[in-house]
Structures are given as C-alpha cells and as structure tokens.
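Structure first, sequence second, as always.
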C-alpha cells in the first residue's frame, strides 16, 4: 500500500511538470503494484473466510477475523475503480458489519479488539 501511495504522489508531481513520458511509466508501474496488492488481499481474504473464521472458537477471534476481511477489502477499494471498487466497498462493509454485530453481542465496549474495529470501521467510512 505504501508503494502505491508513493507512486501516486510521484505521478502527481510529474503531471504538474507536464512530464508525460514519466507519467506513463509511473502509471504502468502503479498498475503492476495494484495487481500484486489485489492478489495478496484476495489470498488473505480467502484464507480468512475458508479457514480462520469457521475455526474461530471465541468471539474475540471472530471479531478480529471479520475486521481483517473488512480491512483487506478496504485496501482494494482505496485504489480500485468501477465495479471492482463497488464490490470491494460492499465486501468491506459486510466484513465490518459482521464484526460489529459479533462485537456488540459478545464483547464489552472497552475491549481492545472492539475498539480497534471501531477505529478501522470509521476509517472505512472516511476514506471510502
């Protein structure tokens, strides 16, 4: 994610200088980064949904894993566009909503995992 943010910043600076050749190179590299990020995020979500969430034995672990699903979909939504962004946003919201419902039913308001969920959910609403 940091590499994507840095390349976006450099691209903006090069656009301000009207350096179209450099902008094209940066866009190509940024697309490569986006592809790698998407693959990594999808792999993590697949592991969470197929193995970790079903095996979670405590409410804390379920909340944590659902939060992670929301986080990784949010990462994709930060740079995606069109239908991909819409799908990532909806999947992220679904992950955070599942985590919130589980946290509200089973964890006290001062639980650190529940507080972390609240923070990340608010970042989702702010950034996406």
């Amino acid at each position: 994610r940091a590499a994507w943010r840095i390349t976006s910043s450099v691209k903006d600076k090069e656009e301000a200088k009207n350096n179209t050749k450099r902008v094209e190179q940066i866009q190509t590299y940024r697309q490569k980064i986006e592809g790698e990020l998407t693959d990594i995020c999808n792999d993590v979500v697949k592991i969470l949904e197929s193995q970790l969430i079903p095996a979670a034995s405590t409410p804390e672990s379920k909340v944590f894993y659902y939060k992670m699903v929301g986080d990784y979909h949010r990462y994709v939504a930060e740079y995606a566009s069109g239908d991909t962004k819409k799908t990532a946003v909806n999947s992220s919201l679904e992950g955070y909503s599942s985590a919130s419902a589980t946290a509200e039913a089973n964890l006290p308001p001062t639980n650190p995992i529940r507080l972390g969920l609240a923070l990340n959910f608010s970042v989702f609403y702010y950034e996406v």
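Margin note: The helical segments are 2-16, 20-55, 59-79, 82-106, 112-127.
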